């Protein structure tokens, strides 16, 4: 039995960095629906002895201002529906932004199983943002540095019960 994890959150928080770290060169599948390929990437993840499917929500970075909100919502909802669990990522250096609140509300409305991650958390500059993340009401944040590979043991502990 394996599970599917969707990495969701606003642009630039580090979703793809974590996806690439989990998947490495094993990027296996892409959605072949027209116009969707760039928006959802799917790969086979490895974390310790865990094997699972991971979905990266992308494609929002190029959206124009007026379409961003709607696209974010649709894409995130689609990823949530495909997944058993969502990793909701914020940027600990930026703290919780209004855009993060929008995503948190989508996940709440969807009753998604959420693991909260405060990324870019290497170093003391991230402390305030990590504390702010508690205020989202989505549980205790995992302190993560996708770029430096820190906090992956905590991510492992959160995912292990799903395997
Ligand atoms: P996405 O838009 O959410 O997929 O974000 P990306 O993975 O493309 O990352 C956005 C930027 O944040 C890039 O410049 C990354 O190098 C940087 N980044 C990602 N993870 C970390 C991290 O753990 N620490 C720091 N300092 N930067 C990070
Ligand atoms: Mg990305």
Automatic annotation (TrEMBL):
GO molecular function, one term: GTP binding
GO biological process, any: ribosome biogenesis
Keyword Repressor assigned: no
UniProt keyword list: GTP-binding, Hydrolase, Nucleotide-binding, Repeat, Ribosome biogenesis
Binding site residues for GTP 1: 9-16, 56-60, 119-122
Record keyword Repeat present: yes
Residues covered by the EngA-type G domain: 3-163
Family affiliation: Belongs to the TRAFAC class TrmE-Era-EngA-EngB-Septin-like GTPase superfamily. EngA (Der) GTPase family.
Function: GTPase that plays an essential role in the late steps of ribosome biogenesis.
Assembly information from the UniProt record: Associates with the 50S ribosomal subunit.
Protein name in the entry: GTPase Der
Record organism: Marimonas arenosa
């Amino acid at each position: 039995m394996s599970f599917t994890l969707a990495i969701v959150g606003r642009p630039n928080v580090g979703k793809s960095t974590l996806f690439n770290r989990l998947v490495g060169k094993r990027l296996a599948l892409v959605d072949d629906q027209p116009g969707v390929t760039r928006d959802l990437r799917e790969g086979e993840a490895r974390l310790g002895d865990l094997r699972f499917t991971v979905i990266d929500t992308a494609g929002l970075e190029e959206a124009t201002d007026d379409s961003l909100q709607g696209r974010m919502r649709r894409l995130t909802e689609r990823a949530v529906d495909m997944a058993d669990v969502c990793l909701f990522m914020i940027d600990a250096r930026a703290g919780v932004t209004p855009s993060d609140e929008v995503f948190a509300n989508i996940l709440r409305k969807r009753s998604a199983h959420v693991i909260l991650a405060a990324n870019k958390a290497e170093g003391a500059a991230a402390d305030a943002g990590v504390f702010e993340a508690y205020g989202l009401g989505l549980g205790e944040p995992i302190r993560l540095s996708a770029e430096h590979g820190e906090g992956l043991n905590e991510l492992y502990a959160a995912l292990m019960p799903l395997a």
